[in-house]
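hey m, so remember when u said the tokens were messed up on ur end? i reran from scratch. heres the input so u can diff it against urs
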Amino acid sequence: MTGPRTITVPTLDHGDVTLTEPPWCAGHDGPAETRDDIHHTAPVAVAGGPVGLDVELVEFPYGAVPVPVSLYVELHPAAATLDPDGLRDLAAAFADRATLLRALAERLAALRAGGTW
């Protein structure tokens, strides 16, 4: 990318809203109900197994409480009944996910400091 790009998102409450789109944004799905709903997003990581993890970059520039570029993290499953081997597998998966999340935290810090993803 050679320079900033802008997009225009139609909203029901503010009409067309034009804003700068970060280079990492993967695009937008049609109109937003309200300007507060406008957000930038891009998938970052997906991991399966006993501790499933979906991670995406997000930013809500016009939110009621604006959210600067951050990572949205979704864990699944929410609950499980496990035997001893399942507990060991779960502990190993948590350790792996912790390593991944620490690396993503460093990348996010660099991005917030003006770097690139």
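this time it looks ok to me. The chain has a mean pLDDT of 92. if urs says something different then somethings off w ur setup not the seq
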